[in-house]
What does this fold into?
Amino acid sequence: MNSKTLARIERMGLKMGAFPLRAGTMHDLPIVLKFYLAYLEEMEHVTLTPHIVHVAAMSVQEVLSNNGGLAMMCEDNGIVVGCYCCQLLHERLTDGMYVQVFPLYVLPNYRTLGVGEQLVVKMVEYAKSRNATRIAFMETPEECSKWIERLGGRISLVEYEIPLCETGE
It folds into this structure.
C-alpha cells in the first residue's frame, strides 16, 4: 500500500467510528460463521450443502482458536452488521508474515455507510502490529475488486492484496 493510500485509510479511520468495532471470540463463532456463509451464498453463489457448512465451520473455528487469528465485528446497537475473520501466516518466499482474510461481509443495508472501510482500517492496524507485509483476500468477487483497488489494493496471481510497504523497502 503506498503511503498516500495508507494515509487516506488512516484518515478515514479517524473520521469514521459511527459503528463500534470489537474483536470476536470463540463465543462469536456462530455469528462469524453466519457472515461467512452469507458471503458464500450471496457473493460466490455457492449452494450451502451440509458439507460446505461443516467445512466453513471448521475453518472459522480453526482461525478463531489460532494464536494469530482474529475476527473483527462492527455493530449497530449491539447487532453485528459487518464482520471478517483473518489469520497471520508465514510467507515462505520472503520469510515474512502476511494476513490472510476470510471474506469481509457487510449486511446489505449497511454497505454504503463506511462499515467496510472501518473494518479494513482495523485490519491494516492488526497487520501492521504483527509486522505483516501484506493483506491477502483469498475470496474476492468482482463486486468487491473495485472497492479493494480503491483502497490501494491490487490483483496478484490468485488473490487481491493490500501491500503494507512500498516495493523495495
Observations:
- DSSP finds five helices and eight strands in the chain.
- The chain has one domain: 3-163.
- The first strand starts at residue 21 and ends at 23.
- Helices lie at 3-15, 29-42, 50-65, 115-129, 142-150.
